[in-house]
Amino acid sequence: MSITKKYWKGIDELKETPAFLKSKDQEFANPNSIEEFLADEKLGESSTERRDFLKFLGFSVAAATLAACEAPVIKAVPYVFKPENVTPGMPTWYASTYYDGISYSSILVKTREGRPIFIKGNKEHGFTKGGVNPQIIASILGLYDSGRLTGPKENGKDSEWGTIDGKIKGSLASAKSITLLTNTVISPSMTRAIEEYKVKFPGKFEHVQYDAISYSAIRKANLQNFGSSFIPSYDFSKAKVIISLDADFLGTWLMSNEYAIQYGQRRNPDGEWMSKHFQFESVMSLTGSNADYRAMTKPSELATVLSYLISKKGVNTGVASNLPAPIKAVADAAAAALASCGNQAVVVCGSNNLGLQLLTNKLNQLIGAYGSTIDKTNTLNLYQGDDEKINQLVSTVIAGKGPDVLIMSGVNPVYSLPNGQEFGAGLKKIKTTVSLSAYMDETASKATYVCPPHHYLEDWADYSAKQSEYAVAQPTIRPLHKTSSALETLLVWIGVTGRGGKDSKAAYDYITETYTGLGLSDFNFTVHNSCVEKPFVVATANEIVFKDAAINGLPKAANLEVILYQKSGIRSGEYANNPWLQELPDPITKVTWDNYITMNPKEMEDAGYATTYDQENGLNLATLTVNGKSVTLPVYPMPGQALKTVGVALGYGRGANGEKIGKSAFQTKEYGGHVTDENGNPKPIGANVFSMTKFENSTYNYTSAGSISAAEGKYIIAATQIHHTVMARHSIVRETTLGIYTHNDKEAYNPAHVLQKLDEHGNHVKVPVSEFDLWEEHPVEVVGHRWAMTIDLSSCIGCGSCLIACQSENNVPVVGKDEVRRGREMHWLRIDRYFSSDEEATIGTRKSEDIDYDNAEHPSLNPKVIHMPMMCHHCNHAPCETVCPVAATTHSNEGLNQMTYNRCIGTRYCANNCPYKVRRFNWFNYPSYKKFTEVNPAQDDLGRMVLNPDVTVRTRGVMEKCTFCVQRIQSVKLAAKVESRKVGDTDFATACSEACPTNAIIVGDWNNEASVVRKSSKDKRAYQALEEVSIKPNMWYKVKVRNEENKELATLQNTKSHH
Amino acid sequence: MQKEAAIREPLILGHKTYHDVTEDVCRPIEDKAPKMWYILFGIALIIGLYGVGCIMYLLGTGVGVWGLNKTIGWAWDITNFVWWVGIGHAGTLISAVLLLFRQKWRMAINRSAEAMTIFAVFMAGLFPLIHMGRLWVGYWTLPLPNQFGSLWVNFNSPLLWDVFAISTYLSVSLVFWYIGLIPDFATIRDRAKKPVAKKMYSILSFGWSGRAKNWNRFELVSLVLAGLATPLVFSVHSIVSFDFATSVIPGWHTTIFPPYFVAGAVFSGFAMVQTLLLIMRKAMSLEAYIHTKHVEYMNVVIMVTGSIVGTAYITELFISWYSGVEYEAYAFLNRATGPYWWAYWAMMTCNVISPQLMWFRKLRRSLLFTFFISIVVNIGMWFERYVIIVTSLHRDYLPSAWSMHYPSHIDIGVYIGTIGLFFVFFLLFARYFPVLALNEVKTILKGSGQSYKEAPDYHKHH
Q1: Residue B334: closest CA among chain A residues belongs to which residue?
Q2: Which has fewest Cβ within 10 Å: A533, A574, A882, B180?
Q3: pLDDT of B461
């Protein structure tokens, strides 16, 4: 029996009244239609009562207020159809190649949802082996630079490609002479295109290559010595002895990103052997700061040093070889080292003086370096500029006898020539000048036509940087603007191809053609790897015997010798508008956003210049005059600067006539906006000293005689470090020599911190500080992961690649000069640079127990240098964590010190309580405050595209700091989980560890006993900075080992080991 | 009534009767305000409003408008905070501790001292609020149930203890002060002629009727609150000192801090009371109630606490050397001889040397000299906090991060502004509130009043 309960809506339904039956099937009880309801005349009469009105009013006000409180919503447009190869949230990596006329590298480009956002070196393919420098990593920012030209221009006005192409074709056809002025072309396809020009315009066409920084002397010297103009391949990893004369081969000289990797391989004291590095230089360079022995040598003394070393090999060059005692001591040590290393040595010279290069070649020949550390066969295709040819062209242009058509690509001669101004005026006398420049720069603004090329990340290109390699650059994004491939542009003008617009395949087709022509196969595979080995004809140069050449025109001694050097961030000024690079502290001076005259502080004191500086106290201005040209710049106290010399960095003073080269290239005011001159043009940063270079003895020279005089006033500079010594503190940096390291146990050079305690017998015993613990251990050991890092101070060369990589990966804001001056740079990773003082046997030791603190604050005359990367140590007993009132910074069970931005209320106690001072506070709203519009790329819609979507952009008033790239940790953990495996030791790398050319930074899971980081942290060189504070960092440094003799240090450290 | 030896200096001078006391205290409230009051009030208001403007700019733009940097995360903000909290220390000490110790002389000064305390704590409390990067989420420092899941405050953090300590101190001080005001308000109410004033004071006086029951409860509550407030006198500044003492920064990480801070606070608080009262007794003709004896008593307190502070300074110096800790030793060497030597020696001169002059009876009974020293002491105490905060931070462990601090004009504006606001409050208090605890003063009139002491017959007859 089934009983179904029946419910009635009402008594009507039970009784089934007629009214109910009638309305039963209607949805609405009241059958009135809406029209009827609205047509009701009485509707208007129904009024809202006072109480209701107040209710409505209250509700609407409350609702409106609440709605107004809501943060503005920025809408993202989702994909309607999922593009192939794009998974939202997953990065896609492309192998590509970087070449800007100065640096070359095989790179990997990370794209997210079609946007390139990060660049790193390609460690698997290419002879650069992953070696990058700050410019290469920072070049990603150029893609999104709002200062870039968005389309072709004619006489400064916007134009169309079709119009311009027609006009240029016409000019070319009617021209009697055509000159193509480019930076060094290493592209086989571009070379082929140029060959086609030669065929098309027989006898009328000339191609001149011009490098802003010339290495012409090396080629000329080799031409004289070997009969062939080449730049060889150097291999610093084969050199037991490295002698460098003014060559900054780790920072700016030739293929420094390649050399840094080679160099790093032999700076490990635990390796098979460790190289011994001698540096003779005037301005303290990045390379000089890493040298085992460094002698303050004037440019005019370099020849003497070479001659002296050559004489030690029993050859008389006829050049004087009498050296001052301090240099002689180093030269003797170098000669002794050379005597015992066979042919495993290399001598390099950074000067562009032919005589010096000939002497260098001679010494290399005597050592037997050719064939050992120097490869003459697989030569470099970069830096082919021939100074004589350029000078000739420049002279004709200035004289008004230039070619009818001058096409310029990848060069900015108006800025970088010694007589750039005159050249610029000369350009106006040429019928047709065409510039293939991405910016309306000094040269482009004087050209008839400007045909902006793609950014290299939008373009196909091919390169052959060395004989042995063919490389491809592939586009990683559809062109953002109406720009065009430079190759396509050139081809269009000779009718080889037509314009293809944004989706043009012209360059691609031409490159594949070249590729096939070279006899190589499988282009797609090459694109995948970005490069392929190219068979090459071994030049006969190898068999050519060394031929002595007459040496003359050596740099002359003067009362004041001026060196025009490059800073490793800005170099020749191409990236003057890149705020990351402008804010990258110089590796030695730690100054940002400026150039200056470097002088030894000892001489500055004698001359009455200020030698200290900070937020409010500037440096004295001085006027430097060289070759009749003057600049007024602040004088910077550079320890180790050769006496009677001064240095000035090239690459500054860009856009001096208000050229539109990007908003970050100019000085900014305290409350935003550019500092302007009397014409209303923005003022450039620093001063251009290319005008002080001089064409002499067939090359452009970067050293010459000059004079300096004090100028009125002081100038405030922005440095990230205003204190330069470690004050003889022993638990920050540790250093020893190779001799002490190999002959002594750990106690000698890396003693453990000990404290006294009473043992069970009541005796005082010394036990390591690690045994004392105020707090309960964080449960990070053994269980799960524990992320840790080691940094080898022996390997770190201080190049700054890690800093820029970190900035790029973690959306670190740029704050501009005024804020850096106030000590508010936001870099999560900084590189501390310490000089030794006279109170120290070496950095971080005390010559005697009682030291003079005043003296310890001042660097020695020619100090030793240590570079120490510094970021969050992720302490297991983090002082920052206990003091946060709202628990915004906490410890993860993987050993990470986490910062929860959302929870942070900004008391800054954590930053105060951090012994390493690595926490960074958002003093302003960097992504929107007007002060940062010019400098912070995240302030415009285009610039914002570079932001890493995996990392939050921090708001005003919150603290931030290094996270150990926690977003990467998450992604490797997720990948491992998806694949049901454990996280492998090599899976995880931070942005900094990836960027490091010398592998100084190692990261990994410390709980994995087989991990490299675990082993590294257990090494006898490993120590923890400020260990005695007992904060238990997850970070270890490794003792710096210098391959030198240091008797004072040996006494100190050997006595220690006997205790 | 308590008996007092006749040879003791009387606390109330002149031939004051009960009525005189009432008249003297109520006169300034009932009369028209003098011109000077308007001028002073106007100046204080302008300065205060300028400070408010600076604070608005700060809140609108970001903490970056101050002169702080990556190394020095606190400077004038927390210096001012500790300085004001310190000043706010005298009130409770006078009203609570001296009450328990039955120091009758406190009655002349406790009302103004307590008012000063409350206004100083207002000013002090402002700084932890505005120094936050995100003030609008500052309420997260309160352990409130919330919708963020299990998010809770961090009880390890001394900043959190600060929140509790300061808010407790402020509320107890406020209640204590107000309870004391009730009978006095009632007196004014009873005398008031204008209806608005009468209404206002009758609300303020909570219906006080002056019956024995009222007085009985009043005495009881005062005693209980005094008992509650006494530990606060020691806890507040101890906890403020924990902000530094529990850190790892050399120069902050010091166990001596709690007693040293408390002594310093009393020291600066009494100095501020001196500064204010010396002006007030003159301006409001209260010379009979606050006279040399009171000033002398307070100078003795300043001398004692100043000596404690001086001892603490020297102990710190000794320990920094004796400990053998490199960073600690350098931190103190740097204080005395580093770039901020002038701040250190300003502090040493003002706080260690100047109170020692109070050993001379002549000096400690000189009103002009006292006024001068009271200002000097507060300058010294400001420098003490500046020295502790800035010179410790600017050169700590890693020399690479060493820095200098330069205040911005907003730093200065906010500080000066709080002084302006403080005086705005204090001038309003002086105008509308009984600046003397008149009903309490009456209780000692017969014991310590000059007229009664000089007429011994009077006692005999009763």
Answers
A1: A853
A2: A533
A3: 47
> Over the stretch A798-852, which tens digit does the pLDDT of each residue have?
999 999 999 999 999 999 999 999 999 999 999 999 999 999 999 989 988 888 9
Phi, psi of A885 (to 5 degrees): -70, -25
Cβ under 8 Å to B: A residues 868-887: 868, 870, 879, 882-887
The CATH number of residue B335's host domain is 1.20.1630.10
Residue A397 resides in a domain: no
A793 touches chain B (CB under 8 A): no
A32 touches chain B (CB under 8 A): no
pLDDT in tens, A575-611: 999 999 999 999 999 999 999 999 999 999 999 999 9
pLDDT in tens, B160-211: 999 999 999 999 889 988 998 999 999 889 888 889 988 999 999 888 988 9
Both A714 and A810 in one domain: the answer is: no
Lookup: tokens for A90: 């997953």
Strand partners, A1023: A1037
Q: How many domains does chain B have?
A: 1
List CB contacts (< 8 A) between A718 and chain B. Answer: none
Identify which has the larger pLDDT, B460 or A427: A427
Nearest by CB: B141 against A824, A886, A919: A886
Complex ipTM over 0.90: yes
* pLDDT digits 0-9 by tens, A155-166: 989 999 999 999
Shared-domain flag, residues A740 and A684: no
Question: Is residue B224 assigned to a domain?
Answer: yes
Note whether residue B69 is domain-resident: yes
A371: burial class by Cβ within 10 Å (0-12, 13-18, 19+)?
Answer: exposed
Q: CB A727 to CB B399 under 8 A?
A: yes
Residues of B in contact with A1026 (CB under 8 A): 397
Residue A24: inside a domain: no
Residue B320's domain comprises: 18-143+152-461
Task: Identify the domain boundary among A355, A380, A405.
Answer: A380
Which of chain A's residues have a Cβ under 8 Å away from the Cβ of B326?
729-730
Give Cα separations from B157 to A860, A880, A886 (angstroms): 43, 10, 8
Q: Does A732 touch chain B (CB under 8 A)?
A: yes
Question: In what side-by-side order are the strands of the sheet with A787-792?
Answer: A1001-1005, A787-792, A1035-1038, A1022-1023
Question: Which residues in chain B are contacts of A905 at CB distance < 8 A?
Answer: 132-135, 137-138, 140-141
CB-CB neighbors (< 8 A) of B133 in chain A: 904-908, 921-922, 956-959
C-alpha distance from residue B402 to each of A453, B101, B343 (Å): 46, 49, 18
Task: Pull the structure tokens for residue A896.
Answer: 């990470």
Residues A743 and A689 in one domain: no
A128 closest CA partner among A223, A219, A257: A257
Pick from A889, A912, A923, A956 the residue to mutate for testing the B interface (most B CBs within 10 Å).
A912
Rounded mean pLDDT of A912-941?
92
Q: Answer yes or no: is B241 within a domain.
A: yes
Chain B residue with Cα closest to A721: B400
Contact B249 A615 (CB under 8 A): no
- The verdict on residue A228 lying in a domain is yes
Residue B250 lies in a domain: yes
Residues near A902 by Cβ (< 8 Å), separated by ≥ 6? none
Q: How many residues does chain B have?
A: 462
Q: Is A1009 among the domain residues?
A: yes
Same-domain status, A317 and A245 = yes
The per-residue pLDDT of chain A, averaged, comes to 89
Instruction: Give per-residue pLDDT as tens, A81-132.
Output: 877 778 888 899 999 999 999 999 999 999 998 899 999 999 999 999 999 9
Torsion of CA A961, A967, A970, A976, to 10 degrees: -130
Q: What residues make up the domain containing A128?
A: 91-142
Q: Do B400 and A921 lie within an 8 Å CB cutoff? A: no
Count of domains in chain A? 4
